[in-house]
C-alpha cells in the first residue's frame, strides 16, 4: 500500500466543495489559510466571503483602514491574525507590486505566515513539494504511527514535520496536503473517528493498540489567568457615549471598548463604588446602576474574563463622546458586541 495514493483516492471521493479549492490565486489561498488558523471551516466560511466581497484583491485590502479590517474580522477571534493580514497586504501591494512570493522560503518572510501557512500556499498555488502540518495532520500522523510525542513540543513539531515530508507525494503535493488535512477533519476526527470505514484501519497503530482516544498527546497549557473587568457605559442626555481603543500587546489590540476599570478580584457593588478610579471617571452626581449583578464570563485560550457593565448617566456630556448610533461602525470584542446586542437602544 502506498499511503499517498490511498489518501489522494480517498480525498477525490470524499472532499468537501470549498470555495478556496476552486482557485490557485495565492491571495485567495492566503486569505483562507489565515482565517482557518485555529478556526473551524463552518465558522470561517462567512468571513472568507465577506472579505472577498469587500477586498477582491490584495490592493483593495491594503488600501483599507485597520479599523475597517478589524470590523469585518469582528467575532472571528485571535485578532493578531487580522492585523498581520492587513500589514502583509500592504507589504505585498507596496513592496512586491501585488505579487506574492512564489516559493516556501519567500512566503515564510511575510508577517503572520509561519511554516504551515507557507507550506500550504506553496504547495497549493505553485505545487512546491513541501509538507503541511496542522492540527488535523498532527492527529492523523500521531494515530497512524502510534506516536505519543507531544504535538506542541519542539520535539513533536520536528518529528511530525519529518513524517509528513516522508509521506508526501512529491508529484502531487497540492492534492496530498489538502487530502491529509481533509482526512483529519472528516475521517480521523478528534472524537468518534470513523475507524470502521478508514482505508488505513489495517495499518493504523493506534487502532491496533486501542489508543485512538489517547492520541495525539498535547502538553497541558499554563495556568488560566482570571481577570475582573468593569465597563463604564456612559449615556449622556445628548445620547452620546465613550469608547476607547485598546493599545499594546495584550488582548484585543486595536479594538474598541467602553472605559474599563480592571480589579484584582471580584468586588461587591458597594466596594466598587468606593474605588477612587471609579469616582474619578464618573464624576460627581452621576446616576449609576449596575446592568448585570452576575458577571458575564468570557473565556479565552489562556484567561477567563468576568465582566460587569455599569450604566453611567453623567451630569454633563463626556469629552470626546460619540453618538450611540455610530457604535456599530467600531470594531469591538465579542464580549462588548454581545452586551450591545441585548442592551436595547431604548435604554439609551
TrEMBL record:
<dbReference type="InterPro" id="IPR015797">
    <property type="entry name" value="NUDIX_hydrolase-like_dom_sf"/>
</dbReference>
<keyword id="KW-0378">Hydrolase</keyword>
<keyword id="KW-0234">DNA repair</keyword>
<keyword id="KW-0227">DNA damage</keyword>
<dbReference type="InterPro" id="IPR005760">
    <property type="entry name" value="A/G_AdeGlyc_MutY"/>
</dbReference>
<protein>
    <recommendedName>
        <fullName>Adenine DNA glycosylase</fullName>
        <ecNumber>3.2.2.31</ecNumber>
    </recommendedName>
</protein>
<dbReference type="InterPro" id="IPR003265">
    <property type="entry name" value="HhH-GPD_domain"/>
</dbReference>
<keyword id="KW-0326">Glycosidase</keyword>
<dbReference type="InterPro" id="IPR004035">
    <property type="entry name" value="Endouclease-III_FeS-bd_BS"/>
</dbReference>
<keyword id="KW-0004">4Fe-4S</keyword>
<dbReference type="InterPro" id="IPR023170">
    <property type="entry name" value="HhH_base_excis_C"/>
</dbReference>
<comment type="similarity">
    <text>Belongs to the Nth/MutY family.</text>
</comment>
<keyword id="KW-0479">Metal-binding</keyword>
<dbReference type="InterPro" id="IPR029119">
    <property type="entry name" value="MutY_C"/>
</dbReference>
<keyword id="KW-0411">Iron-sulfur</keyword>
<dbReference type="InterPro" id="IPR044298">
    <property type="entry name" value="MIG/MutY"/>
</dbReference>
<dbReference type="Pfam" id="PF14815">
    <property type="entry name" value="NUDIX_4"/>
</dbReference>
<dbReference type="Pfam" id="PF00730">
    <property type="entry name" value="HhH-GPD"/>
</dbReference>
<feature type="domain" description="HhH-GPD">
    <location>
        <begin position="35"/>
        <end position="186"/>
    </location>
</feature>
<dbReference type="InterPro" id="IPR011257">
    <property type="entry name" value="DNA_glycosylase"/>
</dbReference>
<comment type="function">
    <text>Adenine glycosylase active on G-A mispairs. MutY also corrects error-prone DNA synthesis past GO lesions which are due to the oxidatively damaged form of guanine: 7,8-dihydro-8-oxoguanine (8-oxo-dGTP).</text>
</comment>
<keyword id="KW-0408">Iron</keyword>
Amino acid at each position: 500500500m502506498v499511503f499517498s495514493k490511498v489518501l489522494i483516492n480517498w480525498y477525490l471521493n470524499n472532499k468537501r466543495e470549498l470555495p478556496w479549492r476552486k482557485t490557485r490565486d495565492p491571495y485567495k489561498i492566503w486569505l483562507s489559510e489565515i482565517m482557518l488558523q485555529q478556526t473551524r471551516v463552518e465558522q470561517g466560511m462567512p468571513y472568507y466571503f465577506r472579505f472577498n466581497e469587500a477586498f477582491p484583491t490584495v490592493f483593495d485590502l491594503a488600501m483599507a483602514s485597520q479599523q475597517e479590517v478589524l470590523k469585518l474580522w469582528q467575532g472571528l477571534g485571535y485578532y493578531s491574525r487580522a492585523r498581520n493580514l492587513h500589514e502583509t497586504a500592504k507589504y505585498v501591494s507596496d513592496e512586491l507590486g501585488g505579487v506574492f512570493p512564489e516559493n516556501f522560503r519567500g512566503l515564510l518572510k511575510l508577517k503572520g505566515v509561519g511554516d504551515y501557512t507557507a507550506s500550504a500556499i506553496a504547495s497549493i498555488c505553485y505545487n512546491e513539494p513541501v509538507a503541511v502540518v496542522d492540527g488535523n495532520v498532527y492527529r492523523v500522523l500521531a494515530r497512524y504511527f502510534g506516536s505519543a510525542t507531544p504535538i506542541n513540543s519542539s520535539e513533536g513539531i520536528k518529528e511530525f514535520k519529518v513524517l509528513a515530508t516522508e509521506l508526501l507525494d512529491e508529484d502531487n503535493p497540492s492534492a496530498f496536503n489538502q487530502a491529509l488535512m481533509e482526512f483529519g477533519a472528516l475521517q480521523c476526527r478528534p472524537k468518534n473517528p470513523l475507524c470502521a470505514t478508514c482505508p488505513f484501519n489495517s495499518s493504523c497503530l493506534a487502532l491496533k493498540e486501542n489508543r485512538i482516544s489517547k492520541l495525539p498527546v498535547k502538553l497541558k497549557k499554563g495556568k488560566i489567568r482570571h481577570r475582573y473587568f468593569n465597563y463604564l457605559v456612559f449615556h449622556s442626555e445628548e445620547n452620546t457615549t465613550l469608547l476607547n481603543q485598546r493599545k499594546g500587546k495584550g488582548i484585543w489590540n486595536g479594538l474598541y471598548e467602553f472605559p474599563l476599570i480592571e480589579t484584582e478580584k471580584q468586588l461587591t457593588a458597594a466596594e466598587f463604588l468606593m474605588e477612587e478610579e471609579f469616582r474619578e471617571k464618573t464624576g460627581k452626581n452621576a446616576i449609576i446602576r449596575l446592568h448585570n449583578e452576575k458577571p458575564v464570563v468570557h473565556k479565552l485560550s489562556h484567561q477567563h474574563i468576568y465582566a460587569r457593565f455599569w450604566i453611567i448617566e453623567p451630569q454633563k456630556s463626556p469629552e470626546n463622546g460619540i453618538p450611540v448610533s455610530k457604535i456599530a461602525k467600531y470594531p469591538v470584542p465579542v464580549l462588548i458586541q454581545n452586551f450591545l446586542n441585548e442592551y436595547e437602544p431604548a435604554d439609551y
